[in-house]
Amino acid sequence: MIETRGLRKSFRSRAGRETKTVDAVRGVNLEVAEGEIFGFLGPNGAGKTTTLRMLATLIEPDGGDATIAGADLRKDPAEVRRRIGYVPQGGSTWDESTAREELVLHARMYGIGKADAQRRAARALDAFQLTEYADRKCKTYSGGQRRRVEIALGIIHEPKIVFLDEPTTGLDPQSRAHMWDEIRRLRADGMTVFITTHYLDEADALCDRIAIMDNGELVAEGTPAELKREISGDVVLVGIDLTATEQATKALDGEPYVNKLETADEGGLRLYVDDGATAIPQVLRRLDHAGLELRSIELHRPSLDDVFLTKTGRSLRES
Amino acid sequence: MKFARDTWLIFQRQTQLLLRNPVWVFVGVFQPVMYLLLFAPLLKPALNAPTQAAAYKIFVPGLLVLLAIFGGLFQGFGLIAELRAGVIERSRVTPISRLALLLGRSLRDVVSLIVQAVIITLLALLFDLRVFLGDLLLAYLMLALIALMTSAVSYGVALKVKSEDALAPLMNTVAQPVLLLSGILLPLTFAPGWLQGIADWNPFSWAVDGTRALFAGDLGSDKVWQGLSITAVLAALGVYWAARQFARSVR
Predict the structure, then answer these.
(1) In this protein, which residues make up the domain named ABC transmembrane type-2 (chain B) (predicted)?
(2) Residues 6+ apart with CB under 8 A from A188
């Protein structure tokens, strides 16, 4: 659905007399499949929004090219515009207009006729549960309502792909969960969804596949599960009486699925395994066999933050 | 066809939003009316005009040109608010014509200027101003071209500077010499030679002269076609330049 080859963009910024060139995006190669929610994860300033704006035809790349929904970004940006929807980060509605007016106008900007535009607006208002506020001015809406109007604007022309730039930033937890459902619904309707986010849990819970961006480059790409597995595998924490630690170590060390075994400071054992879900039953059986009593067993899965840490040497939360 | 439709779409939207807040009519008319009531009476003796009506024939066209220049130059502020709200970015991801994004807005400004001009002309009629309808319509065409140019330039500059703080001083700096060198308030026939020499380079001075000739019923005067041609060319250039700003990246 989206394929980019070596997409690049640099900006010149002036600080006093010096002109500095900032390479915002340095050669991004991406592939996004049809019908998936693709997450673009990275700290602020990583180049996510710049990449997104290039794909949405808002800024011209300095180098590289891209095919979006079958249209060539460099040669035919007008056709790309027809096939995509874009929901910018900072909002896109006018205080003094109503949601219905905005939706009708936006549909008509895509060349849709007046009657059809009105029908589509009514349908979108209904789908996003906005009918009740449809004829009130946008400035009276809550953050979550306004964001829903903006998403509805982005898909009013039924694009093949919709780009959402940080769709949940600034929303309260409830609106955020609601927004996730809306985004999943877009996928269910057959749309490809491309979102940027700097929330790890969002990328993890919502996205089919993610790419991690740092300093203008992609540092990792895959499904959340793949990425996490690739990094460090899982950790199984085995809680066991101190007196039994030695016996347990003997029982488990050398088992084929255990990559590494450590004695935890707080007592018990830490087992590094590839896949915790399949390791746990085997651990249980082994300990039972050895006649050892288990106090607790815990599965610790690496988070996307661990992935980010391994790939970039720092934590996403710090950056 | 698509272009005309797109332009109409933007024009409609902008006009609708303008009508929702009709204070502008009052604000836009209040100041010129003050000039008409409080400043114009000084003109008959100052200009040595034979009658009050003759003084108005000189002053009213100048006032209308003034309105067209200023009304246009400050439209950029509204656009900066739209930029900030993300409305412009939202428009730019649709296939709508970039020229229509500009022209729809500028035409709204032209229409609102003409409405103000009509109100002021009607008021001036009460002070015995008399103009032939044909001449008046040509004068309005001149005003429309001026407003088209100044509003387009203002939008273009707004897209470049992106902040009210930069736009306000910039527009004031441009507007003041333009105003003084165009003979809007007093005809430049009173000016010393060097000042007239500079004013010849000010296109608005030609526009003012042309409009005055029309109000004087002097349709055959060279000043009419000269003023109209100069403003038409400048309006075309202004629109072309500003439309390119709409097409270029806006951050």
Answers:
(1) 23-249
(2) none
* Rg of chain B, C-alpha, whole Å: 19
Query: d(Cα B229, Cα A188) in Å, to the nearest integer?
Result: 59
The count of domains in chain B is: 1
Contact of A121 with A104, CB cutoff 8 Å? yes
Coil, helix or strand at residue B150: helix
CA–CA distance, A203 with A196 (Å, rounded to integer): 9
Phi, psi of B39 (to 5 degrees): -105, -40
Please spell the DSSP secondary structure of A92-153, one letter per residue.
---TTSBHHHHHHHHHHHTT--HHHHHHHHHHHHHHTT-GGGTTSBGGGS-HHHHHHHHHHH
Most confident of A253-257, A263-267, B141-145: B141-145
Cα angle value A65/A69/A75 (rounded, 5°) = 40
Q: Are B66 and B184 in contact (CB under 8 A)?
A: yes
Q: Does A229 touch chain B (CB under 8 A)?
A: no
A95 part of contact set with chain B, CB < 8 Å: yes
Span A275-293, average pLDDT: 82
Give bridge partners of residue A193 from the DSSP assignment.
Answer: A37, A162
Q: Are residues A206 and A93 in the same domain?
A: yes
Distance between CA atoms of residues A300 and A280, nearest Å:
11
By residue range, what is the domain housing residue A255? 234-301
Whether B189 shows a pLDDT value over 90: the answer reads no
List, in order, residues 6 or more apart from A67 with CB less than 8 Å away.
Answer: A2, A3, A73
| Residue A306 included in any domain | no
Q: B87 to chain A: which residues are within 8 Å by CB? A: 92-94
Residues B63, B64, B69, B75, CA torsion sign: positive
Residues of chain B in contact with residue A111, where contact means CB-CB under 8 angstroms, are 2, 5, 95
Mutate which: B2, B17, B91, B93, vs A, most A CBs within 10 A = B93
CATH number of A198's domain: 3.40.50.300
CA angle A233–A239–A241, rounded 5-degree value: 145
pLDDT in tens, A174-218: 888 888 998 999 999 999 999 998 888 888 889 999 998 888 888
Number of separate domains in chain A: 2
Q: Are residues A177 and A106 in the same domain?
A: yes
Residues A222 and A238 in one domain: no
Distance CA B205, CA B65 (A): 10
| pTM (2 d.p.) | 0.82
Residue B174 lies in a domain: yes
How many C-beta neighbours within 10 Å does residue A88 have?
21
Q: Distance between CA A183 and CA A155 in Å, rounded? A: 11
- Name the nearest CA neighbour of B212 among B234, B227, B191: B227
Closest chain A residue to B2, measured at CA? A111
Q: What is the pLDDT of residue A297?
A: 85
Q: Is A186 left (phi over 0), alpha (psi -120 to 50) or beta?
A: alpha
Instruction: Write down which residue in A199, A228, A257 finishes a domain.
Output: A228
Predicted local distance difference test score (pLDDT) of residue B144: 95
Helix (H) or strand (E) holding B213: helix B203-215
